[in-house]
Write a structure and sequence with these properties.
Layout lengths: L7 H50 L3 H21 L3 H6 L6 H31 L7 E2 L2 E2 L2 H25 L8 H34 L6 E9 L9 E11 L2 E9 L14 H7 L2 H4 L10 H16 L5 E6 H11 L2 E3 L2 E3 L4 H12 L3 H21 L3 H13 L3 E5 L2 H8 L16 E8 L9 E12 L2 E12 L5 H4 L2 H4 L11 E8 L4 E8 L7 E5 L2 E10 L4 E10 L8 E4 L7 E4 L6
Parallel strand pairs: 3-6, 10-18, 11-19
Antiparallel strand pairs: 1-2, 3-4, 4-5, 6-9, 7-8, 10-13, 11-12, 12-17, 13-16, 14-17, 15-16
Helix pairs in contact: 1-2, 1-4, 2-4, 4-5, 4-6, 5-6, 10-11, 10-13
Length: about 575
């Protein structure tokens, strides 16, 4: 006869289920409450950080220093709320776990930056005027830079690590509101890491490079994007600058006509020769075809030394779009018959100048006048804060390249975007690239544009990266009659007037191999080689006015399929649209 009680085993199961359910309810309540608190703290950080940026921009460092402890307090609380065992346990829940991981990592990044980067940067800001960075006219006060190197180095290391961690958060696996927040946080951290990293690099490199330890000389090469080369454009005008104790002056100016073709080419790497034969070693105009500026800079320096006998400490290459950014800082400049502002300087340099002066000798002379006017205005009349902003914008678009003849300096430059070395794949992602080199012989790239897309996924069981490039000739249909012969090249190099001929090279991740090559839905003969450990595919493309072509290259193997794949490309007049698309297996 039953006494009405469940058997012991059934009671044990019921108690266990009840305990588990109770624990889950409590745990869910726990993470919901702590999660809401953590999100609130992160929102407080965002608001305070915005106030701090405004205060620093206004030069109100006392206010910024008062805000800093608030940011640190909010960040520490957010980090503490998201690191307990229960929270970490929820990170393993399918579908939802990625959201908990993302919140924890965002809080961890904020705590690290607030504790170890904000304070050193504020100390630097209080010790020197970051608005001018020590500039007075064309002279830079080098003394404060050495004093701020150590705190900037510490802050840069923290921000660089935070940037790497932020890039590795899988925002696509999170819910839309959180995904948007992660993307915004990445942008902020990347910007901060770039700015502080640049300031640290400046504090290390500027004192010796600007003549703090003895006079220095630098060749400045202005590139014309209307005739594309790998690092921006054909070399047009050149200048030799002298730097001594922070003071900068122009010593000599030259054009490519001062550098006749060499009978015996300068030495080139195997990859450069494979892509462009020996032309970069013979012609000054083609040196910037060399994809790696650590090689191109040294070649430019050697070419100048051979021609003029000057000892060269470094090379700085800038493209014509830098002029636009600089004129925004300097105001209008006058050269030849032109007065240019930020809206007109690029059309004048890349188109109007050639329409006004059919004679190439006159073109070179006016181009040199433009360079001189630009340098003089930048070195003598621009507000330091505006000038620094213009240079930062140009560097951010990869429009400034610097090479140093001094090994210690070149090592630091090569590791930065300013050095123009081929990118290195690593924790922050994998790189692919697109290089454009004009072989029309004119200035027709004023009428071209590009669109670039990447796709990553799996094809036939293999991790795969696709790079797609669309190249368009937007010249008017009657370009042969409407445009000057110096722009179209007039058929001199075997290209009909109005047509555009371009070498388009696509390189893949380090170690990856080419799986397939497609142009407008069909295979065609291409040139292949390697840049270091990267496979390169180069198409020779000829387009009539109004025509467009699309090249697709797929890579498999090492580095392929990385969701953090990034694109490097030749700086064009108009920066190309770069998008991520769904992979289409071929």
């Amino acid at each position: 006869m039953s006494d009405g009680r469940l058997p012991v085993r059934r009671r044990w199961v019921r108690w266990t289920i009840g305990a588990v359910v109770t624990f889950l309810v409590l745990a869910i309540g726990w993470v919901v409450i702590r999660g809401a608190s953590a999100v609130s703290e992160l929102q407080n950080i965002q608001a305070s950080a915005s106030q701090m940026r405004t205060a620093i921009a206004e030069g109100n460092l006392e206010k910024a220093e008062r805000i800093a402890p608030r940011i640190a307090g909010h960040a520490a609380k957010a980090h503490g709320l998201t690191t307990d065992p229960i929270w970490r346990g929820f990170e393993f829940i399918p579908w939802l776990g990625a959201n908990f991981t993302a919140v924890r990592e965002v809080a961890e990044i904020a705590d690290s930056i607030a504790a170890d980067a904000v304070t050193p940067v504020l100390e630097v800001a209080s010790s020197m005027n970051l608005a001018s960075f020590g500039f007075t006219g064309s002279t830079l006060d080098l003394a404060p830079l050495s004093a701020v190197e150590a705190p900037l180095e510490a802050a840069s290391a923290v921000l660089s690590a935070a940037d790497t961690q932020a890039q590795q958060i899988d925002a696509n696996a999170t819910l839309p509101p959180l995904s948007d927040a992660v993307h915004k946080m990445r942008d902020v951290v990347t910007e901060a890491a770039t700015v502080v990293g640049t300031l640290h690099g400046a504090s290390v490199l500027l004192p010796p490079m600007l003549g703090g330890e003895g006079p220095r000389t630098y060749v400045v090469a202005m590139q014309n994007n209307a005739e594309l080369r790998s690092s921006g454009g054909i070399v047009g005008s050149l200048a030799l600058l002298r730097a001594e104790n922070g003071s900068i002056s122009i010593v000599r100016q030259a054009s490519t006509r001062d550098f006749p073709p060499l009978d015996e080419p300068l030495p080139l790497s195997d990859s450069t020769t494979a892509l462009f034969e020996d032309r970069p070693g013979r012609y000054m105009q083609n040196i910037t075809s060399i994809p790696d500026f650590t090689e191109a800079g040294a070649t430019l320096a050697l070419r100048w030394e051979q021609q003029f006998g000057d000892s060269v400490d470094g090379v700085i290459a800038i493209d014509a779009i830098v002029a636009e950014h600089l004129v925004e800082a300097t105001g209008d400049i006058t050269f030849g018959p032109f007065t240019a502002n930020a809206d007109t300087i690029v059309p004048i340099l890349l188109s109007g100048l050639y329409a006004t002066f059919p004679d190439p000798v006159e073109q070179d002379a006016v181009f040199a006048q433009a360079a001189n006017a630009l340098f003089s205005a930048a070195l003598g009349g621009a507000e330091p804060q505006e000038l620094i902003g213009a240079l930062a914008a140009s560097a951010g678009e990869d429009r400034i390249r610097i090479w140093s003849a001094h090994p210690e300096e070149e090592s630091l430059l090569a590791a930065s975007t300013l050095g123009g070395a081929l990118p290195v794949d690593g924790a922050r992602g994998t790189y692919v690239g697109v290089l454009f080199n004009d072989t029309t012989g004119g200035k027709m790239n004023f009428y071209t544009d590009a669109a670039i897309s990447t796709a990553v996924g799996v094809c036939d069981g293999e991790p795969t990266t696709q790079v797609q490039v669309t190249w368009t000739n937007n010249a008017p249909a009657n370009a042969a009659e409407e445009l000057p012969e110096y722009v179209t090249a007039g058929g001199y190099y075997g290209v009909d007037a109005g047509d555009v001929r371009t070498l388009i090279a696509v390189y893949g991740p380090e170690g990856a191999e080419v799986r397939s090559i497609d142009r407008d839905g069909a295979e065609e003969g291409v040139q292949t080689t390697r840049l270091g450990t990267r496979s390169v595919v180069q198409h020779d493309v000829l387009l009539a006015p109004g025509e467009s072509t699309t090249i697709t290259v797929s890579y498999i193997g090492t580095g392929a399929g990385d969701r953090l794949t990034r694109v490097q490309h030749t700086p064009l007049i108009e920066s190309p649209d770069i998008v991520r698309t769904e992979i289409v297996c071929q």
